Amino acid sequence: MAKVTAEEMRGRRSASALSRIFTSRTTTRRYLLFLLLIAPAFLLRIVTAAYPILRTGYLSLTNTNLITNTSDFIGLRNFPAVANDFGVQSALTFTVMLVVGATILEMILGMLVALLLNERFHGTTFGRTINLIPWAIPTVVAGYAFRWLLDDQFGLIPNWINQVAGIRPVVFISPVSARIVVILAHVWKDAPFMAFIFLAGLQGVPTDLYDAAKVDGANAWHRLWSVTVPLVAPLAITMGLFRLVWSLGSFDLVLGLTQGGPGVATSVLALEIFREGILFFKFGFASAISVVLLMLVGVIGVIGLWLFRKADVNY
Amino acid sequence: MALRIRWRRILLYLTFLIFTLVVLIPIYWMVRSSLAKASDLIRLPLIYFPTPTLRNFETLVEQIPFFDYIRNSLVFSVATTFATLVVSFLAAYAFARISFPGSGIILWVLLLTMALPEVGTIVPLYTVLRDLRLLDSIGGLTLVLSSTLAPFTIWVLISFIKQVPYEVEEAAIIDGASLPQIFWHILLPVTMPGLVTMLLINFVNAWNNLLYPLSFTTSPTSKTLSVAITEVFAGYSPYGKPWELIMAVGVTMTIPVVLLVLLSQRAIVRGLTGGAIK
User: Fold this and answer.
1) A73: three-class secondary structure by DSSP
2) Per the structure, how many domains does chain B have?
3) Does the residue B129 lie in any domain?
4) Using CA atoms, how far apart are residues B253 and B132, in angstroms rounded to an integer?
5) Which residues between 106 and 125 in chain B have a beta carbon less than 8 angstroms from any beta carbon of chain A?
6) Nearest CA of chain B to the CA of A125: how many Å?
7) Distance (Å, rounded) from C-alpha A253 to C-alpha A211?
8) Superfamily designation of domain A76-314
């Protein structure tokens, strides 16, 4: 690789007279270097993200099925089929429930845990250490662990509840309780991560603000609402947004915990796509569901950005 | 005044206790179940501390290609981590040091792809990998996952690289250093904390990944532990689901990453939060 001169590297940012001499050859070399450096990453993204997205769109308009070996263009006819599919209907409903419910709970609990870990007491280091465990554990393993933990016959929790209240809850038979459990398990897995983000944000709040508030007579509750919350709010909203969008693709936890059951009560879009596409090889149909998911990502992303803009302006 | 402080303290410790229990109980339950005899697991009242036995792990080794799965998980995780880091470091350097009108937008577009859920493209990816003859291969899995992990890694590395004062590189350039030399002798040593952080985070992500191995592998040549646990779950034992085996696989998957994370938590937290805050 040829030597690169200092002017070429600095580009616009330097004020030195030398660097203001921009020959077209210099700029071209910089440009080429840039392209060369980002090429591997971009190539990867194009092959595994950009092209597949477009291809998903195309496939959703076909009846591609690897088993029956069809691949004809059928226009939008997949979409009514998708809309009428009972599994997809249920998955769509629950995906939205899960995403919204879990994210809200994760933000609240994450904030609470962050406040807890921000205090000064003996267990803080221990607390921050074990806070990483839910993040580290493989999601599918957590799913199976919770399934066994809540087993109505030999699981820990139902047996404890039985000893205390005399009833033995059967969590996974009822759609309602199954859905609640999935949401709570999701929160267990992800709230600690939120807690870390919030903790970093909390630690960035300058202590003089708290002191000033104390002098003005604010108690702990007041201080929380008038100092902490406004300063951590932008961070919270950003993270909430990311979490919302990321959890739209939630797959592992449901697979381990309920496999979508009972029936399809706890199925999520990701599970339906996987089932129809990878298990049944109904590529056209599965791509149509994927399109629905991607549109959901787009809609929620846009709503989130709009909310963020609003919060930013007010703040 | 003293009474109020006491009150607050009690509440604090109580909350902390609840927090600790909630986090650790599932782990305890998993470990306890993996070390128990199958018959001990279906006894009531519950046996909280069964006599430990490694029988379940022996069964796993006997009945499924357990070591192949472990090997695959390891190779996949290491390969993905390495590939992601290399690709991301090059791109991060470009974004951090070379700017021109439009480079910001290019970066923004790259980061935007982080919003894409893994499942969203899984159907065409199957065909892509099949056409590249990368189905049922760790190489194929590495390709896909390192692409997924790259944007976040690039984002974090950009902020680490920007912390290196440009004057140092400038001096090296004036002395006649080439770009690879700058990377190796200057940037790598100084951004090492950031690299180690992303190394750890990406290793954990790769090790835990389920969707890609589940979708694109068909044999023990490339199936990973995450696939293994779903297969064991599909099995049956005289007592119903073989929970002792399922939990044993779970423990095998969990203990290494938890240990890794506990030993390097500061580095990991710095990476996770650094990317988010900036």
Assistant:
1) strand
2) 2
3) yes
4) 30
5) 106, 110, 113, 115-125
6) 10
7) 44
8) MetI-like (1.10.3720.10)
Answer yes or no: is B193 within a domain.
yes
Q: Which two tokens stand for residue A21?
A: 């001499």
Round the CA-based radius of gyration of chain A to a whole number and report it: 26
Q: Which residues of B touch A296 (CB under 8 A)?
A: none
Both B132 and B250 in one domain: the answer is yes
Which residue of chain B has the CA closest to A195? B273
> Is the CB of residue B47 less than 8 Å away from at least one CB of chain A?
no
Please enumerate, as own/partner, the contacts of B58-64 that have beta carbons within 8 Å and a separation of 24 or more.
B59/B245, B59/B248, B60/B232, B60/B245, B60/B248, B60/B249, B60/B252, B64/B228, B64/B231, B64/B232
Among A39-43, A91-95, A116-120, B18-22, the minimum mean pLDDT is found in A116-120
Residue B83: name the closest of B33, B146, B39, B128 by CA: B146
Residue of B nearest to A272 (CA): B119
Residue B105, domain CATH: 1.10.3720.10
Both B84 and B18 in a single domain? no
For B61-72, what is each residue's pLDDT tens digit? 999 999 999 999
A258-289 pLDDT, tens digit per residue, is 999 899 999 999 999 999 999 999 999 999 99
Out of A33-47, A77-91, B93-107, B124-138, pick the least confident.
B93-107
Nearest residue in B to A28, CA atom: B100
- pTM confidence score: 0.89
> In chain A, what residues touch B31 (CB-CB under 8 Å)?
none
Residue A31 C-alpha from the chain's centroid: 35
Residue A204: strand, helix, or coil: coil
Are both B95 and B233 inside the same structural domain?
A: yes
Percent of chain A with pLDDT over 70: 90
Domain membership flag for residue B229: yes
What pLDDT score was predicted for residue A18?
A: 37
Q: Which of A197, A204, A120, A136 is nearest to B265 (CA)?
A: A136
d(CA B70, nearest CA chain A) in Å: 14
Matching residue, tokens 């305890």: B28
pLDDT at A148: 95
Domain span at B196:
63-277
Check if the beta carbon of residue B129 is closer than 8 Å to that of residue B140: yes
The answer to whether residue B253 is domain-embedded is yes
pLDDT in tens, A112-130: 999 899 888 888 889 989 9
pLDDT band at A206 (very low <50, low <70, confident <90, very high): confident
**Do B135 and B71 belong together in one domain?**
yes
Q: How far apart are CA B123 and CA B119, in angstroms?
A: 8
Under 8 Å CB pairs connecting chains A and B tally to: 301
